[in-house]
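Deliverable D5.2: sample structural annotation.
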Amino acid sequence: MRFAKYRMKKEGLFLFGLFLFVFLSAGVFAISFNVQNTPCSDTRNIVMKLSDATNAHGELFDRTNYNFYLCSDTPASRDCTGSNKILGLSSPTNAHAEIPSLTSYTTNVCYGDLEYTSTTSASCPDTHIVPILSLSAETNAHIGAFADYGIKICGKLPLLPPAECTL
């Protein structure tokens, strides 16, 4: 009897682990960003606005000068809370941009609870797997979709707290 309970618990943990693996592999917790010339599906999904699809100046999400949008598929806060700065803008509108680690520009574009970094690699590093957009230079830069320029901005997904498991 005791062996049967142990075996059921062991099988239950295995099945739970398999379910969790499949669930996470399916991208349920994934977030994506894209530049588009139509409004985002929800105003809470607007990260910022751009003057064009590429070679663009940027503006804050609530400005009304531009008709291109950097959209997220997940609504999130735009409050700056530490490491969630995507980039700095030289002004609230008609702005050049800089990478998130620089502080020359004081108008910050922040989004959600991801941590953002820049890279000169063609793709995002293993630590920051979410592609956001690209810049023409580290500072005084034009903005484009992720594939447009050599400086890439990538996001790191937050760590989820461990789930409690009771058997």
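Annotation notes: Confidence is low (pLDDT under 50) at residues 12-29. Residues 23 and 29 are 9 Å apart (CA to CA).
The annotation will be released with the project's public dataset once the embargo ends.
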